[in-house]
């Protein structure tokens, strides 16, 4: 099941794969909104988010640590995220996505993948393992796969606009 960002995923998703995808999309919405309570609600209390080497304090262990990390990124780096592709297993217990992380305050873009593991009833994320498309090179404004046609494949080329109250 692959969708591009912006496709509607009803709250009443009925298949396990649809519930997994809906939970991932809810998580990204909470990230973009810097919604700490919403982020915590997406995870089991003992959830773990793993990252490639180089991120201080990684891995992030606990729903609260994950929420605090992403809220900090939004407030400090101007972070915004888009989901490019989603593939969820038929049983809904695992999924993989491609994403783009827009760091608008520091003029950087990072692309990568994440592997998700969900609890039994697919209401919370237990674990995320992040993989970057390329090693982070601070000299490059956009970190992505060399020679990959992001525009031609329909990937986002600009960050989403923040919702302003």
Automatic annotation (TrEMBL):
<dbReference type="InterPro" id="IPR032710">
    <property type="entry name" value="NTF2-like_dom_sf"/>
</dbReference>
<dbReference type="Pfam" id="PF12680">
    <property type="entry name" value="SnoaL_2"/>
</dbReference>
<dbReference type="InterPro" id="IPR037401">
    <property type="entry name" value="SnoaL-like"/>
</dbReference>
<feature type="domain" description="SnoaL-like">
    <location>
        <begin position="24"/>
        <end position="121"/>
    </location>
</feature>
<protein>
    <submittedName>
        <fullName>Nuclear transport factor 2 family protein</fullName>
    </submittedName>
</protein>
